[in-house]
Design a protein that fits this description.
Structural class of chain A: alpha/beta
Helix content of chain A: 25-40%
Strand content of chain A: 5-15%
Strand order of the largest sheet of chain A: 2-8-7-6-5-3-4
Order of helices and strands of chain A: EHHEHEHEEHEEEHHHEEHEEEH
Largest sheet of chain A: 7 strands, mixed
Oligomer: homodimer
Number of helices of chain A: 10
Radius of gyration of chain A: 21 Å
């Protein structure tokens, strides 16, 4: 090892779900939306004036922030936007988890949390889910330097009732509490209104799932003005211009088309509820998902075997080779047609 | 101050040049390109399939990386891309400047460097430029934890000869040396080929200036495979998907249109050389710019007065209220028409 290599930061990167470059039949492994974004997004992209690309984008993303603020019914000063919710969450870790005490997170949760903690050398402690794979609110009330959890949790797909979310916040008013609501639009109850009551609560959202815009990288956070200005200060200490002109235009169009958004959500929820039944009939135990994916374990067949046999048929789902969940598959809700292909394949594999 | 506020990271953000929301006559304050990007970019945006926005973008930005690798004649494994060169540089600071010894930077240089150092708690030391506002290579040879400088330097616009750049690298083979070539395309000599000789050298470039794409946020770095894989590991520990689909498509189109690129550069250089003469005739001392901006001080009139009087006329240039350079203006090279408006205004202000 050369001398300069000794000063390189050591990290263990997050591994995203595979983006297959080969032709695939059905891709149900990264929780993307099976439907395209609002047609208003198409128009917004067509209306882009490429000649303006020569200019820096608005560093405050004012119009996108305004569109989100209007939609969420909060003042603009309480909205922060970033390059996907990963950028927003990563920046929130860097900004708010700057103490000596451990940040609390579940043992089974979004697997980027401990990656950010390691990257920024933030001490953390993992709290086991209970046997039903639920977050136990009481366990999040010990002394800590911050709290972060998704609601619904990923990859379990299980929602915690708002009363329990509030219990965690109420018991943790000396630290920042981050509620990651990437999947809240699929039937969950948001903690967003609690940001009016608790100025240490940050709620994080994404355009990647319910708004079908994973490819454009837009996420946002809602919190008190104090939280949001602290986040902005760190953002402006890293990169003044994160949101490019195309992302802003697409984001504004997407959030304004509420009707299309609601239709998309309804279709996904309806497919999901049917999928729960079908998979149960196939001998799976399926958690009560409030997300756009299922978390399922088969009563007799190994998860890894099912995963591999689906993969052989060019059907991609997600398998986590991790303690406690290595008998589970995470299956994104696709279109009804895609789900039929999955069901047919499962019928063959399981028979 | 509430308890949770004590754990917020304290930062002093970078302040970007103003993006005026009012109508302006001429905007020469953020070193944007006065000409639009290649018409191939327009086509690439038109060809975007908005329906694919529902999918995550390629986390490796493979095609954009390939287009850059082809253009720069390096293997793909030696290319890293990010959301503007600020993202690339910020990530490089986080990745490579992880030791105890101070990182060396000039006292007058890109003002984001010390912001990143403060954000990531990196010790640093500033080395004064000489009286001619030049970097003194010998001064960058003391013991350190890394070296970073732009070439040409900003905001001085002065290029360091490649032999001197190499001298700094040769004397600093135990640390990572970052050469920030944001402005190299405007007549400078790149250190890029030296990355074949020195595996601790990282050369950083941007699409924001010479490629007229500030609004789309694309930057890149070229270095040894060791440097690039370390950068990638940190990137994948922060945000898997940084480059959105539109940015990648636009970037690929821009870098492939070499003819248009060369024409743009030629026009800007020709306008710049004339601007040097005109401003000298007006009583300015102008550094020998190898960039798309001038750095100029007037022999009798206060820089701040000129700045404000130009601003009153809705002509924006950049004034830095900082020691040693508060008698200078940084003036971006605009179109010939824009420069004529500037000259006319200066004639009135200086008479």
């Amino acid at each position: 090892m050369k001398e300069w290599e000794k000063n390189i930061r050591k990290v263990t990167p997050y591994i995203p779900g595979e983006q297959p470059k080969m032709d695939y039949v059905v891709k149900l492994n990264t929780n993307e939306c099976p439907y395209p974004p609002s047609p208003m997004v198409e128009q917004a992209i067509k209306d882009l004036d490429y000649k303006r690309f020569r200019l820096y984008p608005d560093p405050d993303a004012t119009e996108l922030v305004r569109a989100i603020a209007d939609y969420e019914k909060v003042p603009e000063e309480r909205v922060f936007v970033g390059v996907g919710s990963d950028d927003v969450l990563g920046m929130a870790f860097l900004t708010f988890f700057h103490g000596e005490k451990p940040v609390l997170m579940a043992d089974i949760t979004y697997s980027f949390y401990d990656v950010w903690a390691n990257l920024f050398q933030i001490p953390f402690e993992t709290i086991p889910l209970n046997a039903q794979l639920e977050i136990v609110p009481e366990e999040f009330c010990r002394e800590n330097g911050g709290v972060v959890f998704p609601n619904p949790n990923a990859p379990t797909a299980i929602e915690m009732p708002l009363s329990q979310v509030e219990k965690i916040i109420r018991k943790n008013q000396d630290v920042v509490v981050i509620v990651d609501e990437a999947y809240i639009d699929f039937g969950g109850t948001s903690a967003l209104r609690l940001t009016e009551k608790y100025d240490n609560l940050l709620v994080v959202r994404t355009f990647s799932k319910s708004r079908a815009m994973a490819g454009m990288r837009i996420g946002y956070a809602i919190g008190s003005e104090t939280l949001i200005s602290a986040l902005k200060a760190v953002k402006f200490s890293y990169n003044s211009y994160t949101m490019n002109q195309a992302a802003m235009a697409a984001g504004i169009a997407a959030i304004r088309d509420e009707k299309y958004f609601n239709q998309t959500i309804e279709k996904i929820i309806s497919t999901r509820e049917r999928a729960k039944k079908v998979l149960s009939d196939f001998g799976f135990f399926v958690t009560d998902s409030k997300t756009n994916f299922l978390f399922a374990t088969h009563k007799t067949m190994e998860a890894k075997d099912i995963f591999e046999q689906l993969r052989d048929r060019h059907i991609f789902v997600r398998f986590f080779d991790k303690p406690r969940i290595n008998q589970y598959l995470r299956i994104t809700i696709g279109t009804d047609e895609e789900m039929e292909i999955l069901y047919q394949a499962l019928r063959e594999i399981l028979k």
